């Protein structure tokens, strides 16, 4: 099975792996190929070290921008073989700091509305402390990923995620389940409070916190439902696939094996492997020695993940940039 066969039938695609192995290039090349096939595609970079703009040679930021548009034909039956449907490719780079600030601002607004006025300064103090607390950044980025998935399923045919390096991505993939469980625990605590409020109401005693607690419960329910929807999408093999990008070297291979194991435990479908920057065969000298070394590590990869489809992309003499370069690179993925 070719990787394009995996991509063609999916609505959500993640690409992950060690830093510097070519995830952004691979994500963009696959996204462009699908757009050229007539699909509406959104590529999203969640890696703090963004390269999407450099790759496409244009400004790409925290708002969606067009990256590629098909040539519009007035007559789809003009003998050119086009289907008449114009594909497109949009891109966005999630800004971690801006995302965290927006996330905390939203949380702060909700808390100030629900908490007594005299606690407003306390809310601000806790949010300032939370800004750099472990997990805050991941929770904020997860919200943006949920947004992008929902937008992608509603407005696009395919959304492609160019993710951060392996360790960060593994934690992010585990977060929907963790956040859902955490929210469920909060809801159980709210249930006990609701029962107490109900008992007071039955005795004819008005509970001044009942309305506030009811809104907290509705907020928690919406949050739980959102994370459950996201997890459902991430674990649906008919909708989602995760491709692992690597170089045929020790650390990338070992990280790939570890990440694949983590994803499988989480129920995220792993669709295939892209071995990038492969030393060309028959080149002689240094490149021949490197290829032999790479073969040894690909044997390790086969022993661990031999059930996955794999493509190999040879090391190129220059950088891949722009639609023309990506189209050429994408030919090796088909």
Give the H and E element order: HEHEHEEHHHEHHEHEHEH
Count, helices: 11
Helix content: 55-70%
Give the structural class: alpha/beta
Major sheet: size, sense and barrel closure? 8 strands, mixed
- Our Rg estimate from Cα atoms comes to 24 Å
* Ends apart, CA distance between termini: 10 Å
Question: How many strand units?
Answer: 8
Name the CATH superfamily classification. Answer: P-loop containing nucleotide triphosphate hydrolases
CATH architecture descriptor: 3-Layer(aba) Sandwich
According to CATH, the fold-level topology is: Rossmann fold
CATH first level: which class? Answer: Alpha Beta
- As laid out across the biggest beta sheet, the strand order is 3-4-2-5-1-6-7-8
**Based on CA inertia axes, which overall geometry fits?**
globular
Beta-strand residue percentage: 5-15%
Q: Which residues sit in consecutive blocks of at least 5 with pLDDT less than 50?
A: 76-82
| Total number of domains | 1
Task: Calculate the mean pLDDT score and round it.
Answer: 83
Family: Belongs to the arsA ATPase family.
Protein name: AAA+ ATPase domain-containing protein
Domain AAA+ ATPase: 8-231
InterPro entries: AAA+_ATPase, ArsA/GET3_ATPase-like, ATPase_ArsA/GET3, P-loop_NTPase
Task: Please outline the helices and strands.
Layout: H1 3-8, E1 12-16, H2 23-36, E2 40-45, H3 52-56, E3 65-69, E4 88-93, H4 96-114, H5 120-130, H6 136-155, E5 158-162, H7 166-202, H8 210-234, E6 240-247, H9 250-266, E7 270-278, H10 285-305, E8 310-314, H11 322-330
Parallel strand pairs: 1-5, 1-6, 2-4, 2-5, 6-7, 7-8
Antiparallel strand pairs: 3-4
């Amino acid at each position: 099975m070719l990787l394009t066969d995996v991509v063609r039938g999916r609505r959500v695609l993640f690409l992950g792996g060690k830093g510097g192995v070519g995830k952004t290039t691979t994500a963009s090349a696959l996204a462009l190929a699908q757009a050229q096939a007539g699909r509406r595609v959104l590529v999203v970079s969640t890696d703090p070290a963004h390269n999407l703009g450099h790759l496409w040679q244009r400004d790409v930021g925290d708002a969606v921008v067009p990256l590629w548009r098909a040539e519009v034909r007035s007559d789809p039956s003009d003998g050119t073989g086009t289907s008449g449907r114009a594909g497109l490719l949009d891109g966005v780079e999630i800004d971690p700091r801006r995302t965290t600030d927006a996330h905390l601002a939203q949380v702060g607004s909700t808390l100030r509305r629900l908490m007594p006025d005299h606690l407003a300064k306390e809310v601000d103090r806790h949010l300032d402390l939370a800004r750099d607390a472990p997990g805050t950044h991941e929770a904020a980025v997860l919200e943006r990923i949920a947004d992008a998935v929902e937008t992608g399923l509603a407005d696009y045919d395919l959304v492609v995620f160019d993710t951060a390096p392996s360790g960060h991505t593994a934690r992010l993939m585990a977060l929907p389940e963790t956040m859902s469980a955490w929210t469920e625990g909060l809801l159980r605590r709210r249930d006990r409070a609701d029962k107490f409020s109900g008992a007071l109401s039955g005795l004819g005693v008005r509970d001044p916190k009942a309305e506030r607690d009811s809104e907290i419960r509705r907020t928690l329910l919406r949050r739980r439902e959102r994370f459950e929807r996201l997890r459902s999408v991430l674990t649906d093999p008919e909708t989602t696939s995760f491709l692992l990008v690597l170089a045929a070297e020790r650390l990338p291979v070992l990280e790939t094996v570890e990440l694949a194991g983590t994803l499988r435990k989480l129920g995220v479908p792993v669709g295939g492997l892209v071995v990038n920057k492969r030393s060309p065969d028959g080149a002689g000298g240094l490149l021949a020695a490197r290829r032999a070394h790479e073969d040894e590590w690909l044997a390790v990869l086969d022993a661990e993940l031999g059930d996955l489809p794999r493509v190999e992309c040879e090391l190129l003499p220059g950088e891949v940039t722009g639609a023309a370069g990506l189209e050429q690179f994408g030919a090796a993925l088909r």
